[in-house]
Prior knowledge:
With about 130 residues, this protein is α+β, with helices and mostly antiparallel strands. Helix content is about 20%, strand content about 45%. The protein has helices at about 5-25, 125-130; strands at about 25-30, 35, 40-45, 50-60, 70-80, 85-90, 95, 100-110, 115-125. Strand 7 and strand 8 form a beta hairpin.
Amino acid sequence: MNLRAxxxxxxxxxxxxxxxxxxxxxxxxxxxxxxMRPKDKVVIAGTSLAIRLDGVGHQTFSGPGPSPGAASYVLxxxxxxxxxxxxxxxxxxSTEAGDYLIKVNSAYPFHSQDGPRCELTVMNAxxxxxxx
Length: 132
């Protein structure tokens, strides 16, 4: 094999690897609680829903405010059927994205809490309405 062909093969292999890594997303099931760290991407298996965690934060209040746990929030980029939207949710809040309900179970913005990270659950919105 000559040097030119070897270089070409190496470049092609590296390009395929880099492109494949950038498209890689973790898959989770509906109803499964999962943990995300900033810039993690997940795809909900069997759906067109994808979520990227853009950040985990903590809001402080002067005077009386919510409990410390409720002051934490997450910034999500939710993509469903080709359209994306940014969402900010506090711990315990949920939002609908198409036929699905995204709930923030917990958020840990501080490194001392092994953060930043959050725990989410995605459920079928129709089934979860029937449970309420």
